[in-house]
Amino acid sequence: MGERRISIETKAGLLEGFCDTRFEGVLDAFVTNFESRGEVGANVALTLDGKPVVDLWGGRKSKEGAPWTSDTMCTIFSSTKGALALAAHMLVDRGLLDLDAPITDLWPEFGAGGKETALVSMALSHSAGVPHFRAKLEPGCLNDYQAMVDVVAAEEAFWSPGSRVGYQAMTMAWTVGELVHRAADKRFGAFFRDEIAGPLGLDFWVGLPEELEPRVARMHAARFDPNAPPTRFVAKAMGDRTSAASYFLRDTGRLLDVNSRACHAAEIGSANGIANGRALAGMYAALANGGSIGGKHFVGSDTLTRMGRVVSATHDDATLCIPTRFALGFMKAMDNRRLENSPDSSVILSDPAFGHVGAGGSIGFADPACRLSFGYTMNQMGLGLLLNPRGQSLVDATYQALGYRTNAGGVWTD
Questions:
Q1: Which of 72, 79, 350, 405 is the most exposed, having the fewest neighbouring CB atoms within 10 Å of its CB?
Q2: What's phi and psi for 52, nearest 5 deg?
Q3: Which helix (DSSP H) or strand (DSSP E) does residue 26 occupy?
């Protein structure tokens, strides 16, 4: 394998970086994203056996704005959850957090509203019964960590804990985040900075320092087609105003002022991480290589095996209204391509892979079977609940380069 330095002009701007010649299909897909899929600015990065093999960036930090450079970062929305889950598993590995214990052992206030039987593992598996909050909160409220901890603790359970799966799109920041806080005696943002991002040298922040603000790209919302038939998610949200889907739809885009300094500075461990593809690939590299990398240890082999194991699967997620599959805090491959009126509701990986997608289409994941880590971030958001064709085309090209093939089940197999 040889390395190819990249400098390519596209209609969206200059693309730069490097690409191992084995992965030139990833480069081709990256260029296509800018030429015909509406990409504005983006970064995709891969490591194999812990070594960087692809790092491509380009386009613009905002439409008609400054170029997206090698150190540009952007909001990665729910791809942040992978970092939060890693922090929790590190504490489990150290014996400071017990997956089988009631949440109330660490956080007594959480037991209000019928949630007293919820276990720590349920906070990670999206089954604790608090997929969202019913109260109509004010914009900016998510930036107040302690206030949101109190909101989630007081929320009445949507179902008996453990009896149903409903994606904690926002609330995972506090259901898991407060467990990390109490187990580590340190808030998640600081724990992540001190024990993960800092030691690995990652441009990845949950609570961005003000001096780094000029490096952050502006996020552009997806454009909805008013003539398109409603997805299952929208149909449920509009048809049942007491559902988790309805409350989530009500608050999507309303509570998170994603381009504001206040949001960037806050700690919302489910939604406001700021990073680039290189940082996501760098974080997952340790998990693709036995739990350690560069002499730095994060989790042991038993914990790593548990991190990639499916623990909850449903044909009708209470929040997303699609079939979902989760490990403890991570997403697994989900093939919903045949689901009527629900485009871009899939993420096609290999079966051993685990990671997390973010709103608009970012993704980071580890594949321990082939010792691959992957990260993709972008500032033009796409429609759909999981990956859109830009991110999936990059994932597909990666697995094709490794000699994988798809099967009828929609996962990549070697």
A1: 405
A2: -65, 130
A3: helix 24-36
In angstroms, rounded to a whole number, what is the distance separating the alpha carbons of residues 182 and 107? 8
Mean pLDDT along residues 221-242: 92
Which residue has 């320092």 as its token pair? 209
Find where tokens 């999981």 sit: 386
CA distances from 135 to 141, 148, 152, 248, 295 (A): 12, 11, 10, 11, 47
Q: DSSP string spanning 33-47?
A: HHHHS---EEEEEEE
Residues 6 or more apart in contact with residue 287 via CB below 8 angstroms: 86, 298, 299, 304, 307, 354, 366, 368, 373
How many C-beta neighbours within 10 Å does residue 244 have?
Answer: 29
Q: Using only the alpha carbons of the chain, give its radius of gyration.
A: 20
pLDDT category of residue 409 using cuts at 50, 70 and 90: low
Q: What is the pLDDT of residue 410?
A: 67
Mean pLDDT of the residues in the chain: 96
The three-state secondary structure class of 187 is coil
CA distance 74 to 204: 10
Q: Which CATH number fits domain 3-413: 3.40.710.10, 3.90.180.10, 2.60.200.20, 3.40.718.10?
A: 3.40.710.10
Cα distance between residue 335 and residue 331, in whole Å? 12
Tokens (6 digits) for 90: 């590190």
**CA–centroid distance for 394 within its chain:** 16
pLDDT grade, residue 316 (50/70/90)? very high
Contact 385, 233 (CB under 8 A): yes
Q: Specify the pLDDT at position 407.
A: 58
Q: What is the DSSP string of 63-129?
A: TTSSB--TT-BEE-BTTHHHHHHHHHHHHHHTTSS-TTSBGGGT-GGGGGGGTTT-BHHHHHTT-SS
Average pLDDT over residues 118-140: 97
For residue 46, which phi and psi values (nearest 5 degrees)? -135, 145
Q: What is the largest CA-CA distance in the chain?
A: 59
User: What pTM value is reported for the model?
Assistant: 0.97
Other CB atoms within a 10 A radius of the CB of residue 159 amount to: 17
